[in-house]
Amino acid sequence: MRYVIIDLEWNNVYVKRLKGFINEIIEVGAVMLDDSLQEMDTFSCLVKSQISKKLNSRVEELTHLTNEELAISGVSFQAAMKYFSHWLNDKNDVIVLSWGNGDIRSLLDNYRFFMETETIPFLHSYIDLQSYCQGIVASQTLNQVGLSAAAEKIGIDLSLFHNHRALDDSRLAAECLRQTFDIDKIKRYTEACDDSFFRRLLFKSVLITDLDDPKIDHALMRCKCERCGKDMELFHNWSSTKNGFRSVFICHSCKIYKRCTIRFVELTGGMDIKISYRTAHELTEADHDTH
Fold first, then answer.
1. I want to staple 263 with a disulfide (CB 3.0 to 4.6 A). Which of 14, 214, 217, 244 is the partner?
2. CA distance 275 to 128
């Protein structure tokens, strides 16, 4: 069995005929490991933009890629996927992994746009490495942990890797796999990439913005005091924000206020829930607002 950890960089661009945005892939990086998790080979390829000739400034800042570099050194998406499939060679013994399924969703969107296919031909078995590592590095939170944060918690030296370049991020994810490897857990998290798998990927997530939506689990909309451990009292009613809902809780005994933000996103396989807290000590009630 071989494990191929893939990472993508993309540029979010507007497409007129889609009347919406697409994450156009601009770089593909991957690491191939054998069944002993030893590195066998790597893959790295820049992808020439075919939709927008200008990179988003944020993408330039993060990746240090330039429009000129992509134009000169990049290949078309179709060519990049041909090279990548050839690099994989025998597909039957490969499990593809990525940090979260966002890369795979974007990859499928690019296949649909450029190659008019509803599947990713080389993808037969898949593991969401973020979900695999979540329970190990962040078992006490519903927030999805990022790659760098997870690596730090595992004890990996981040100075050995360059963030936001595809090959280095795939190598960092591969190291996370090595440090947390459990063959029984690997089997549980491996998904067969059949028609239902790709249908789930094509399902567009829906942010829930109605507090009365029956799909919301209101039992999660509470806070405990970090000092005494008791339930805190709702200080401000929940209000809607562009990313979900927000409120403020108070512990009268400890004089602690905690602002809570929660987001419910409906997915094909269930609900993605993200909760974040911001705590302030010894402040007056007048200092707190939900906005």
1. 244
2. 21
Q: For the chain, give percent helix, strand, coil, nearest 5.
A: 35, 30, 35
Instruction: Classify 67 in phi/psi space as left (phi over 0), alpha (psi -120 to 50) or beta.
Output: alpha
pTM of the predicted model over 0.90: no
3-state secondary structure 29-63: EEEEECCCCCEEEEEEEEECCCCCCCCCHHHHHHH
Question: What distances in angstroms separate CA 153 from CA 100, 135, 181, 228, 258, one per listed residue?
Answer: 17, 12, 15, 26, 25
DSSP class of 11: E
Number of separate helices (H) and strands (E) present in the chain: 9, 11
Q: Which residues contact 243 (CB under 8 A, 6 or more apart)?
A: 207, 261, 263
- Sequence-separated (6 or more) residues with CB below 8 Å from residue 1: 35, 93, 94, 95
Per-residue model confidence as pLDDT tens for the chain (291 residues): 999 999 999 999 999 888 888 999 999 999 999 999 999 999 999 999 999 888 988 899 889 999 999 999 999 999 999 999 999 986 678 999 999 998 999 999 999 999 999 999 999 999 999 989 987 776 544 456 789 988 988 999 988 887 779 999 999 999 999 999 999 999 999 999 999 999 888 877 788 989 999 889 888 898 988 889 899 999 989 999 887 899 999 999 988 899 999 998 887 556 778 888 887 654 444 444 444
5 CB burial (10 A radius; 0-12, 13-18, 19+) = buried
